[in-house]
């Protein structure tokens, strides 16, 4: 998702449907649309992605060209609500990630909910091949979590152990990260409100293993064409029924959808 300066003007949203009403992106009501279920006893996994109206997940290889002020507001609300942000190593490299930035008022709200002031970012990486000098490790208030496999764990700890917590998240295969094992490691650390920001391979991994509870998809009013990837691109295919929880719109023509798994 796109990062925009904090000086960007506040977005205005409209709830679509018979009870539609305008929402100011800064008045607190937007957060109600992205609250996690109460009294969680396991990880609740939310995916947050953006796509063009013709299904492209990137433009020129990145998501940044698809976003706008409203997308930034929704993106921030989801981060403020999460216990942990889950991403793939390719997303960290491509989008030049840094740690989550949480303003003082939202830090207080998080503390009141029993959360840490700032959510850590957890990276799924089979190789552990991340640069310890990257801003992902140097521009953050909390150390990230590195979810890797048994085959790479020792080497990753030697390289990154001083700037991150390295976790063995292998399942039956020592050369692969197992998604369920990764979530169990997060649950053991009381990080139950999980926000997955991609990329497509990580989202597909969660879908294929029936671990995605909801998907928040921003539909950007652009056509991309070409060979842009989908928001999920993995080897497996499943059919999972979802129900719409809400749809918002803004003056820029974006749609902010939230779908929850139909149990």
From TrEMBL:
InterPro entries registered for this protein in UniProt: DHFR-like_dom_sf, RibDG_C, Riboflavin_Biosynth_HTPR
Q: Could you tell me which pathway this protein works in? A: Cofactor biosynthesis; riboflavin biosynthesis
Record bears the keyword RNA-binding: no
GO MF assignments:
5-amino-6-(5-phosphoribosylamino)uracil reductase activity
For this UniProt record, the keywords arranged alphabetically read as follows: NADP, Oxidoreductase
**One biological process GO term for this chain?**
riboflavin biosynthetic process
**Residues in domain Bacterial bifunctional deaminase-reductase C-terminal?**
44-255
> In this record, what's one Pfam family?
RibD_C
Q: Which PANTHER family match?
A: 2,5-DIAMINO-6-RIBOSYLAMINO-4(3H)-PYRIMIDINONE 5'-PHOSPHATE REDUCTASE (PTHR38011:SF7), DIHYDROFOLATE REDUCTASE FAMILY PROTEIN (AFU_ORTHOLOGUE AFUA_8G06820) (PTHR38011)
Q: Which NCBIfam families match?
A: PRK14059.1-2, PRK14059.1-4
Tell me what this protein is called.
Bacterial bifunctional deaminase-reductase C-terminal domain-containing protein
């Amino acid at each position: 998702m796109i990062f925009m300066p904090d000086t960007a003007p506040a977005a205005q949203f409209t709830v679509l449907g018979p009870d539609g009403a305008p929402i100011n992106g800064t008045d607190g009501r937007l957060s109600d649309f992205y609250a996690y279920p109460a009294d969680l006893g396991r990880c609740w996994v939310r995916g947050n992605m953006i796509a063009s109206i013709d299904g492209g997940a990137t433009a020129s290889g990145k998501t940044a060209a698809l976003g706008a002020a409203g997308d930034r507001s929704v993106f921030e609300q989801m981060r403020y609500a999460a216990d942990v942000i889950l991403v793939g190593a390719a997303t960290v490299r491509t989008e030049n990630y840094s740690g989550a930035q949480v303003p003082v008022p939202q830090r207080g709200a998080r503390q009141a909910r029993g959360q840490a002031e700032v959510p850590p970012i957890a990276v799924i990486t089979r190789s552990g091949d991340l640069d310890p000098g990257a801003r992902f490790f140097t521009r953050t208030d909390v150390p990230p979590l590195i979810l890797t496999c048994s085959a790479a764990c020792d080497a990753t700890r030697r390289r990154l152990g001083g700037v991150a917590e390295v976790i063995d998240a292998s399942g039956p295969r020592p050369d692969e990260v197992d998604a369920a094992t990764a979530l169990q490691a997060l649950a053991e650390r009381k990080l139950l409100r999980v926000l997955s920001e991609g990329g497509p391979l990580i989202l597909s991994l969660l879908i294929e293993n029936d671990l995605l509870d909801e998907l928040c998809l921003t539909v950007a009013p652009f056509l991309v064409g070409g060979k842009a990837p989908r928001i999920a691109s993995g080897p497996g295919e499943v059919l999972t029924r979802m129900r719409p929880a809400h749809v918002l719109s803004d003056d820029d023509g974006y749609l902010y959808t939230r779908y929850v798994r139909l149990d």
